[in-house]
């Protein structure tokens, strides 16, 4: 079993590469963004709270987000045993600390953090294109700019945190989707040896 964090700015390809990882390694995919969007679609109380933050390009408060993630793990013990791909979590140092503790209580850990590097201009282009195709409410220029600012101030410092832990693998997120996945696979397979 293997736990992977896929890390990078909005538009860096986390969701796309997660699909490949699920197929190849048979992992349980947890995208916190998808979990929140599902609540919004179903009109739950959590969905009502989350939509305000999402549409404003802000992060959901740590304590709430951490309890949402723990609930997903608690509800899926069998799937968790297959290994998990954490997509969009952690996004703050507080969340990274909580994830470490949560997994330690379960006798596991994050094995590798795959960091996708994509230049800012390309991120904006990709997100605007995705907004046109998917209609995601937060993929408009104003919100994209806010999300990138939040990424730089609150999320990107996590890179150093995981580099210090010795589990960070930097991957060039530009190029063909298949080519990027080959590099990810190599990083994972190297760290499994
Ligand atoms: P994503 O689909 O990962 O781009 O997430 C979309 C939005 O959901 C983010 O801009 C945040 O508002 C919220 N969100 C998703 N994951 C988290 C998280 N780990 N912590 C806080 N907010 C999150």
Write a structural description:
- The chain has a 5-stranded parallel beta sheet with strand order 2-3-1-4-5.
- It is built from 10 helices and 5 strands.
- The mean pLDDT is 95.
- α2 (32-42) crosses α3 (45-55) and α4 (62-75) runs parallel beside α6 (93-105).
- The chain is of the alpha/beta class and 193 residues long.
- The chain binds adenosine monophosphate.
- Adenosine monophosphate (AMP) is lined by residues 10, 32-33, 36, 53-54, 58-60, 65, 88-89, 91, 95, 138, 147.
Topology:
Layout: E1 4-8, H1 14-25, E2 28-31, H2 32-42, H3 45-55, H4 62-75, H5 77-81, E3 84-87, H6 93-105, E4 112-117, H7 120-134, H8 141-155, H9 158-165, E5 168-172, H10 177-192
Parallel strand pairs: 1-3, 1-4, 2-3, 4-5
This protein binds adenosine monophosphate.
Adenosine monophosphate binds next to α2 and α3.
